[in-house]
């Protein structure tokens, strides 16, 4: 199975390439343009044809096609092999993700998919997303916080790290480490918090306000280490 880091590498290799609706790493040809124009006339309008013709020869994708192109290709340049079982829309891709959630709970893992209605991007780490944004943009890199992403999900056909080194981020408005952990569905008991503290260099944890605030600050950043990952 392909991995999350390979997905990021594939996406980076597509930066600057054109967006063609309904494509998944295909080579832009006149034949492909004719077929897509017949299939999706609402996207391949007459006024766009001059630009489409200028883009012939490039590897092209739409938003979810950027992920399909990775899944269906042996390399960043190879011809994709269609797989009907993985041919889903952006909205259906989110539904396929067994692990998913609202953005404030997103784990800091490159290759996580990020979603807004009808659109999907690829989180690459360091607050950056690569997305096939649309006809006027092509494949671009954007800042995570500058776009209205609503949900994240782990692509079901990609292998991610089995154990998360850090907890997912909690909401920015959380004021209690106990409530913040509960909001993520995590164990918030004192004994476990003591283990968390030790894993994050907070010594002799007794639950003081200063200690709890320090842990909460790390949790909000998504950099609070899990004690299991540090054992």
List descriptors.
single chain, 231 residues, alpha+beta, six-stranded antiparallel β-sheet, two-stranded antiparallel ribbon, 8 strands, 16% strand, elongated
Give a structural overview.
Helix content is 31%, strand content 16%. It has helices at 4-13, 30-39, 49-54, 65-72, 90-96, 177-183, 190-199, 209-221; strands at 24-27, 59-61, 100-102, 113-116, 119-125, 128-134, 138-143, 151-153. It has a six-stranded antiparallel β-sheet. A two-stranded antiparallel ribbon has the order 1-2. The longest helix has 13 residues, at 209-221.
Helix content: 25-40%
Number of helices in the DSSP assignment: 8
> What percent strand?
15-25%
Number of strands: 8
Shape estimate: elongated
Largest sheet at a glance?
6 strands, antiparallel
What is the element string, with H for helices and E for strands?
Answer: HEHHEHHEEEEEEHHH
- Structural class based on helices, strands and sheet pairing: alpha+beta
- Average pLDDT, to the nearest integer? 94
The unreliable regions are: none
Radius of gyration: 21 Å
Amino-to-carboxy terminus distance: 28 Å
Strand order of the largest sheet: 3-8-4-5-6-7
